[in-house]
Amino acid sequence: MNIILYSKFSPYSQNLIKYIQKYKFIINNFNFVCIDNKQIRDKINNCNKINISKIPCLIIIFEKEGGVEIYEGPIAFDKIKNIIEEEYSMEFKQQEQQEMLQKQEMLQKQEMLQKQEMLQKQETEQKLQQKKEE
Fold first, then answer.
1. DSSP state of 3
2. Per-residue pLDDT for 134 more than 70?
3. Are 92 and 83 in contact (CB under 8 A)?
4. Where does 12-124 show beta strands of DSSP type E?
5. What pLDDT sits at residue 91?
6. Number of C-alpha atoms within 13 angstroms, CB side, residue 47?
7. Angle at Cα 10 formed by Cα 6 and Cα 14, nearest 5°?
8. Residue 95 and residue 101: Cα distance in Å, rounded?
9. How far is Cα of residue 20 from the mean position of the Cα atoms in its chain?
10. Residue 10 class from Cβ within 10 Å (0-12 exposed, 13-18 middle, 19+ buried)?
11. C-alpha 126 chain-centroid distance
């Protein structure tokens, strides 16, 4: 689970959100939490398990392993860029694989059509030869 803590009053937070919104395929990978509400801010500040001092902040929770990674300020931005690049790379590779499969299928179809044409041509030639012989 990826949580992004941000403030509407932080230009850096706003830049980060705009950056993420450009990549629609990844936006669902993040839960956005605005800290402008005092109650939310107090809950975060009173939490003994994490210590946040800069916004934006990326919190990555590894549910299976039970670990937490925290990235704040410019480091959060860099980490999110890396996550997006990895996801984009994976998506690009998947798209590339699909295109390769489609090309292979087309080549196989073309090959089959060529074989069928050759067989038809051979049959026609055989029939013509038989007619000549008659």
1. E
2. no
3. no
4. 30-34, 57-62, 67-72
5. 67
6. 10
7. 70
8. 10
9. 12
10. middle
11. 56
Q: How far apart are CA 46 and CA 42, in angstroms?
A: 6
Q: Is pLDDT at 58 greater than 70 in this prediction?
A: yes
Contacting residues for 20 by C-beta, under 8 A, at least 6 apart? 4, 26, 27, 30, 80, 84
57-62 and 2-6 beta bridge pairing: antiparallel
Give the distance from CA 44 to its chain's centroid.
30
Considering its fold, how many domains does the chain have in total?
Answer: 1
Q: Between the CA of residue 57 and those of 10, 83, 95, what are the distances in Å?
A: 12, 14, 32
Query: Which CATH number goes with the domain that contains 36?
Result: 3.40.30
Range of the domain at 118: 2-133
Q: Whole-angstrom Cα distance, residue 17 to residue 7? A: 10
| Overall pTM > 0.70 | no
pLDDT in tens, 75-101: 999 999 898 888 777 666 676 778 788
User: Is the model's pLDDT at 17 over the cut of 70?
Assistant: yes
